[in-house]
């Protein structure tokens, strides 16, 4: 603390900001009082100087106050304006989902680079004025200068793409569109777009139809945004040159590597990097800055430029490089640290890496407090701090390697150990091949691809043919890089999935890891000092002589003293190793604890998906949702580079976040896209022990791909038929009620267009509760099941999943009167175009007295079963973010 007061002070600032973020109201003040009372106790126990403790308390308090001040001001003036005025229903386009869409006309300025992808253009927009229809059908105009909006422009034709690509930061626009609130997370642990935008001080989305709805001002005012617009143009020109130097997919990869445009890398290539923990290569960071600064220093030394002038050149180069590479938190951090380091070198002041890092963090958090919640900011600073602290502690273990290789290995190992908690917290996956992939590929990319690509780009400005010639070996290396990543990703069994750990788990992990390495390092120093002391004061020769009992006694006593002096440290180190192992074990356990059953109806929009976890930890996925597209082939230009697919974007991330590492079975009730489409991504990411289908196939590309993938992965495929009984574990069993067995089958799987009628219908009995899953069965299938079922032994039904999203073609009155479900779940998309659930079905359920849970209104519905009692919670309440809990027998 005495040597690094700035480090401790910044840590206290971040702790205060974090407490203010995590707690609000009374809990915040109680914690603040507790910390304030703990400070004198800490001073009495540790005997630290009171001035130091007072300074730390002050930094903690200022950090909390600074966050509270900015967070309290992060409100929408537009929201207040809408609440203060009353508007007629003509202004409101849609209020069924609880979010208002209002017709508005806005004026303002583009504040971000315009992202054109498929038929959509996105950018951030700063309002100057807004007007909207009022009760008297005229326009109310209001000054909301400074408010930020996220604008989404739906392009009407392929020609409008060129128009949108000409928009740039700093331009003044006028446009009309519909205003709506961003979506909240609809599943537990899901991505919250509203919270994500709020951290960028954005509270509303403006949806505009067609580029013709936007009018660009002839002259733009001089502003910082206009300067950034010129930088965007320069980046775009550099990107075009990179495309000429590196063809096909390599262009997107090199754009990310050289100028930070990682979004243009092909999605499948990005997934390969992501699964091996290599995406940091595409994020411009300290290594990129260090390599480019080293190149500049080398060139300046070659031309015999003085050291002082070299410092000036590099000091001026850093801000330009930060701007050109996208102004991301990681490159800002590395740029600030480099500039502070150069300044300290010029002044001849004592420099310390952690103090420089802390100064950079404080500057950035004073500039924008919400950076504390940014994943790139967190990873950049924590990994950098980890390298400073851990690399010296790891180097003694790597002395058997050559010096440079040992240094590179220590950096890679330290980065992996330090980034591990945040990696599993945010991305919920970790490949056991990640360390090897980083040690193999990062040096090659950093030493050859990055400087070679930079040199080729710069040389091409003077002679494009020379630049292309220099780019050729880099292209070969890029091809080899992705051959290696593809081969590594093809190795099965090395990917692990982790639930998001708690903040306490992360804190204990870092503390135990550092103390273990630090104490081992101290023990090594003490042991070396002891040996050195013996060599200087007591020659070993007399001790080794056979004669002289005094010498032998002295040697034995020294060995016993050494043993007992080391034992406490060894015990502590062993305890820390055990603690780390226990931490990893607890972190790897799935989110749902054993001993209780869980049925989770995941909100996948207009589709079905349910995860069943039995009391003994077996996982069964029923359907996987799917994105339905009615786009014609001639509209392929509308497709995005990485289109939204519910399996890859919703189901797979949620399974990872809940610590699911394998699925014991997947039950595909039928082959419709909204049930089967999402399973393609599930089979790609998770080992699956069995796939149950209804015994028929549909003539669809999705089903063909699904069956091909299952066969390629050697997943056993079973046909579910009426009368089939499955014993999952001691407390869980499944009874199939439909479809009926086909005695005429000749061993081939038949094709059926009536997939709804052929849906798998089954009862799940788990821990004393009974669930009925119905797929999309129609009324004809319901009547057939009722005719063949044993009415004398009717099960008491606790929960029924309503068929076909509440369509009027199923859930007949006879069906409901037979089962008499205590509760029902309707899986339907919010504001879906089909009108699901149908009012008639809802009326029948209300008349029956069943409790109704709907994913379109309540988001994900989770049920926990224990001793015949069911605990229910759902993600959304009327306030969009509430949780309600119920118990019933």
From TrEMBL:
InterPro entries: ComA-like_MBL (IPR035681), ComEC_N (IPR004477), Competence_DNA_uptake (IPR052159), DUF4131 (IPR025405), Metallo-B-lactamas (IPR001279), RibonucZ/Hydroxyglut_hydro (IPR036866). CDD domains: ComA-like_MBL-fold. Keywords: Cell membrane, Membrane, Transmembrane, Transmembrane helix. Residues 606-804 form the Metallo-beta-lactamase domain. It is found in: Cell membrane. The chain crosses the membrane at residues 278-300, 312-332, 353-373, 379-398, 405-427, 439-462, 502-519, 571-591. Counteracts the endogenous Pycsar antiviral defense system. Phosphodiesterase that enables metal-dependent hydrolysis of host cyclic nucleotide Pycsar defense signals such as cCMP and cUMP. This is ComEC family competence protein. It comes from Paenibacillus lentus.
């Amino acid at each position: 603390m005495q040597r690094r007061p700035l480090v401790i002070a910044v840590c206290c600032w971040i702790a205060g900001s974090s407490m203010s973020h995590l707690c609000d109201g009374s809990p915040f003040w109680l914690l603040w009082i507790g910390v304030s009372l703990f400070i004198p106790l800490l001073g009495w126990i540790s005997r630290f100087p009171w001035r130091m403790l007072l300074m730390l308390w002050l930094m903690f308090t200022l950090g909390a106050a600074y966050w509270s001040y900015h967070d309290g001001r992060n409100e929408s003036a537009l929201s207040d304006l809408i609440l203060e005025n009353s508007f007629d229903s003509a202004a409101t386009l849609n209020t069924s989902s609880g979010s208002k869409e209002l017709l508005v006309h806005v004026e303002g300025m583009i504040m971000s680079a315009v992202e054109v992808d498929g038929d959509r253009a996105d950018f951030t927009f700063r309002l100057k004025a807004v007007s909207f229809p009022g009760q008297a059908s005229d326009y109310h105009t209001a000054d909301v200068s400074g408010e930020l909006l996220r604008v989404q422009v739906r392009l009407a034709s392929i020609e409008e793409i060129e128009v949108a690509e000409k928009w740039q930061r700093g331009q003044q626009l006028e446009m009309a569109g519909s205003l709506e609130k961003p979506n909240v997370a609809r599943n537990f642990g899901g991505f919250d777009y509203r919270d994500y935008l709020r951290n960028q001080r954005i509270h509303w989305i403006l949806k505009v139809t067609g580029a013709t709805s936007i009018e660009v001002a002839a002259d733009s005012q001089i502003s910082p945004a206009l300067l950034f617009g010129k930088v965007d143009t320069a980046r775009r020109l550099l990107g075009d040159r990179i495309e000429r130097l590196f063809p096909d997919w390599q262009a997107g990869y090199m754009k990310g590597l050289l100028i930070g445009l990682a979004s243009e890398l092909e999605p499948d290539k990005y997934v390969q990097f992501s699964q091996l923990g290599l995406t940091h290569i595409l994020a411009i960071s300290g290594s990129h800055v260090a390599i480019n600064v080293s190149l500049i220093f080398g060139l300046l030394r070659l031309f015999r430029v003085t050291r002082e002038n070299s410092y000036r050149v590099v000091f001026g180069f850093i801000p330009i490089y930060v701007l050109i590479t996208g102004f991301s938190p990681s490159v800002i951090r590395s740029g600030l640290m480099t500039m502070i380091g150069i300044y300290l070198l010029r002044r001849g002041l004592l420099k310390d890496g952690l103090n420089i890092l802390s100064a950079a963090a404080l500057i950035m958090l004073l500039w924008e407090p919400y950076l504390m919640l940014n994943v790139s900011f967190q990873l950049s600073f924590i990994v950098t701090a980890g390298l400073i602290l851990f690399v010296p502690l790891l180097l003694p273990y790597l002395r058997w390697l050559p010096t440079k290789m040992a240094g590179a290995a220590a950096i890679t190992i330290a980065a992996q150990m330090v980034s591990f908690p945040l990696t599993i917290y945010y991305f919920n996956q970790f490949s056991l091949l990640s360390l090897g992939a980083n040690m193999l590929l990062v040096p090659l990319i950093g030493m050859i691809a990055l400087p070679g690509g930079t040199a080729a780009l710069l040389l091409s400005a003077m002679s494009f043919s020379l630049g292309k010639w220099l780019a050729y070996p880099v292209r070969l290396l890029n091809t080899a890089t992705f051959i290696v990543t593809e081969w590594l990703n093809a190795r099965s069994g090395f990917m692990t999935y982790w639930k998001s750990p708690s903040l306490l788990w992360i804190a204990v992990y870092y503390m135990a890891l550092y103390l273990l390495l630090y104490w081992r390092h101290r023990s090594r120093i003490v042991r070396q000092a002891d040996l050195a002391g013996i060599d200087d004061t007591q020659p070993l020769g007399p001790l080794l002589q056979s004669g002289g009992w005094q010498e032998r006694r002295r040697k034995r006593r020294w060995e016993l003293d050494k043993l007992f002096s080391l034992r406490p440290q060894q015990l502590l180190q062993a305890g820390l190793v055990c603690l780390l192992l226990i931490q990893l074990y607890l972190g790897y356990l799935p989110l749902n604890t054993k001993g209780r059953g869980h049925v989770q109806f995941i909100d996948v929009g207009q589709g079905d998906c349910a995860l069943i976890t039995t009391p003994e930890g077996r996982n069964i996925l029923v359907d996987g949702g799917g994105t339905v597209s009615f786009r014609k082939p001639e509209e392929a230009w509308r497709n995005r580079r990485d289109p939204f697919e519910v399996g890859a974007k919703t189901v797979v991330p949620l399974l990872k976040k809940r610590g699911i590492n394998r699925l014991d079975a997947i039950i595909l009730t039928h082959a419709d896209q909204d049930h089967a489409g999402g399973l393609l991504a599930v089979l790609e990411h998770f080992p699956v022990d069995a796939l149950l289908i209804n015994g028929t196939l549909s003539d669809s590309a999705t089903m063909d791909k699904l069956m091909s993938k299952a066969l390629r992965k050697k997943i056993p495929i079973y046909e579910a038929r009426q009368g089939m009984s499955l014993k999952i574990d001691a407390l869980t069993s499944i009874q199939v009620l439909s479809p009926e067995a086909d005695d005429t089958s000749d061993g081939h799987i038949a094709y059926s267009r009536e997939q709804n009628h052929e849906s798998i219908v089954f009862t799940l009995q788990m821990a004393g509760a009974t669930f009925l899953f119905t797929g999309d069965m129609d009324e004809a299938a319901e009547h057939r099941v009722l005719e063949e079922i044993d009415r004398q032994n009717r099960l008491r039904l606790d929960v029924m999943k309503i068929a076909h999203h509440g369509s009027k073609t199923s859930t007949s009155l006879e069906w409901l009167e037979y089962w008499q479900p205590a509760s029902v779940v309707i899986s339907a998309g919010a504001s879906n175009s089909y009108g699901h659930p149908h009012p008639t079905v809802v009326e029948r359920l209300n008349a029956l007295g069943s409790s109704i849970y709907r994913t379109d209104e309540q988001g994900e519905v989770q049920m926990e079963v224990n001793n015949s009692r069911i605990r229910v919670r759902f993600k959304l309440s009327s306030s969009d973010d509430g949780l309600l809990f119920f118990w019933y027998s």
